[in-house]
Amino acid sequence: MNPNMAWVGTALALIVAAIIAFAGSSAGTSLFALLVALAFIMQWLAFVPAYLKQSEHFYDLTGSLTFITLTVLALALVDDLDMRSAMIGGLTIIWALRLGAFLTLRVRRSGFDRRFRSIKPVLPVFFMTWTLQGLWVTMSLAPGLVAMTSARQVPPDGFLIVGVCLWLIGFIVQVVADEQKRRFRLHAENQDKFITSGLWAWSQHPNYFGEILLWTGIAVIAFPVLEGWQYATLVSPVFIWLLLTRISGMRMLDASANKKWGDDAAYQAYTAATPILIPRPPRPSRGASDG
Predict the structure, then answer these.
(1) CB 265 within 8 A of CB 170
(2) What DSSP character marks residue 199?
(3) Which of 59, 196, 229, 271 might form a disulfide with 23, Cβ 3.0–4.6 angstroms?
(4) What single DSSP character describes residue 223?
(5) CA-CA distances (angstroms) from residue 115 to 5, 59, 119?
(6) How many distinct structural domains can be found in the chain?
(7) Domain annotation covers residue 144
(8) Quick check: is 48 in a domain?
(9) Rounded Cα distance, 209 and 173, in Å
(10) pTM
């Protein structure tokens, strides 16, 4: 990426975050905006040693710690903690601990993260990736953070039940998919193969489907508390979908896979028969799995 474009990307990320900070704090509390600012400050502080050491090893760890820090502060600084806020906080911390540990250990095992191979030496681009992580934290957590910092409280209702169910389904799908792929990669004979077994027979990216679904659940739980401009934070699941399908995630993985296996008839058959994101049972006519 052109360094000048990276600065533009950084500026756009900050503009979007500022809009969300304004919307989330529109009901009178400034705590939401302060926590959004903290999300970026934590990334920038971590960026300094990361750039100096040319290391990406604590990128994912920093993201997870930011989710946990913002959530803990939101719960600790409100005057009266209700069940909805406690549920959002608990679910967020569980997710952040699990994903942060999983991604950090994966990078440690491999010794590098291929996403950062070419961008670490380029300051504007590397800085932009850390800024985008601040935006990811902000946008993902936005509706839940509004609910946790709001003085408005709504008794447990159907939105809470449905939201928790969506989160549980999404979390289980993500954890199972990640574990299936991890175990697949443990076998030396699978290092140059693509996984088509388990949930990966139902979707080419089941872990991303789980990610989108669980954050949709958080938005549903938070919905009854929102008012006025705060409804803008419900863009959260849409942002996550765009991030994972159009900006990074799937786009990068699919490009790499097509470069590696694009001429492989088995891979062509797999991608033709398997949904890209939303899972469905595999077609009986599919051939044998590579994994």
Answers:
(1) no
(2) G
(3) 229
(4) G
(5) 18, 11, 8
(6) 1
(7) yes
(8) yes
(9) 8
(10) 0.91
For the chain, the maximum distance between any two Cα atoms, rounded to a whole number of angstroms, is 61
156 C-beta neighbours (distance < 10 Å), count: 14
Round to whole Å and give the CA distance between 126 and 120: 5
**Does any domain span residue 265?**
yes
Q: In whole angstroms, what is the distance from residue 254 CA to residue 261 CA?
A: 10
Can you give the residue range of the structural domain that contains 221? 3-273
Listed residue (217, 256, 255, 250) closest to 236, CA to CA: 217
Residue with token string 């891979």: 267
Question: Tens-of-pLDDT digits for all 291 residues of the chain?
Answer: 788 899 999 999 999 999 999 999 987 678 999 999 999 999 999 999 999 999 888 899 999 999 999 999 999 998 889 999 999 999 999 999 999 888 888 777 766 667 777 788 999 999 999 999 999 999 999 999 999 999 899 999 999 999 999 999 999 999 999 999 999 988 988 888 999 999 999 999 999 999 999 999 999 999 999 999 999 999 999 999 999 998 888 988 898 899 999 899 999 999 999 999 999 987 764 443 443
What tokens were used for 61?
């760890």
3 state SS of 250: helix
Q: How far apart are CA 189 and CA 201, in angstroms?
A: 19
Q: Residue 290: inside a domain, yes or no?
A: no
What is the CB neighbour count within 10 angstroms for residue 77? Answer: 13
Q: Cα–Cα distance between 170 and 31 in angstroms, integer? A: 29
Dig out the tokens for 220 from the structure.
């549903």
